[in-house]
C-alpha cells in the first residue's frame, strides 16, 4: 500500500504458481513503480481454476502505477488445467493484470517497454499487459518481445476487458502504444 519503488534494477530468475513477477507480485492502493528494470526470467505453472497474473515487472497492478519501466526477462507460463472460474487472468511483459476500482483511483501503465519473450498456453497473453480491466489505462508503451499465446493474444494487450456496466467514462483505455514484434496465437489474436 502507498509504496514507491524507483530506479531499481533486478536480475535472476523466479519460478512459482499463480501470482509471479520480476519485481512485485502485487502493487496496491497508490503504489508507484517508476524507472525500474527487470532482467528476471519469470516462470509460472498456473492452475487456471484460480485467478492468475504473471508479469515481467508486476503480476497484479491494483489502483497503482507502473511508469517508465523496462522488462528484459522472458515471461513464460504453462498450464495443465482447463477450468477458468476467476475473472483475473493475464500474462504480460510488463503487467499480468491491471485493474482499478473507480474513476477516483488510478491504475496506469505508462512509458514502459517490454523486450522479453512472452509465452503462454493459458488465457490472455500480451506484450505489455495480459488483461487490462475496468478503468485501467495503458499509454505510451512499446512491446519489442515476441508474444505467443492461445486464447486472447496481443502485441500490446491480451484482452482489454470491460464489465457489463462499462461506459465510455469507465472503460479500460489503451492509447499511443505499439508492437514491433511477432505475435502468434491460436484463437483471438491481434498485433
Terminal Cα span: 34 Å
Mean pLDDT: 89
- The percent range for helix content is under 10%
Percentage of residues in DSSP E strands: over 45%
Stretches where pLDDT falls below 50 for ≥5 residues?
Answer: none
Radius of gyration: 14 Å
The total of beta strands comes to: 27
- The topology string of helices and strands comes to EEEEEEEEEEEEEEEEEEEEEEEEEEE
Search tags:
10-stranded parallel sheet; 6-stranded parallel sheet
Short synopsis of the structure:
With 191 residues, the protein is an all-beta fold. Helix content is 0%, strand content 53%.
Explain how this protein is built.
With 191 residues, this protein is mostly beta strands. It has strands at residues 4-6, 9-16, 19-21, 24-28, 32-34, 37-46, 52-55, 58-62, 65-67, 70-71, 75-79, 89-92, 95-99, 108-110, 113-114, 118-120, 125-126, 129-133, 137-139, 142-143, 147-148, 151-154, 157-161, 173-175, 178-179, 183-184, 187-190. Strands 2, 6, 10, 11, 15, 16, 20, 21, 25 and 26 form a ten-stranded parallel beta sheet that branches. A six-stranded parallel beta sheet has the order 1-5-9-14-19-24, with no helix packed on it. The chain has a six-stranded parallel beta sheet with strand order 3-7-12-17-22-27, with no helix packed on it. The chain is globular. The chain starts with a strand and ends with a strand.
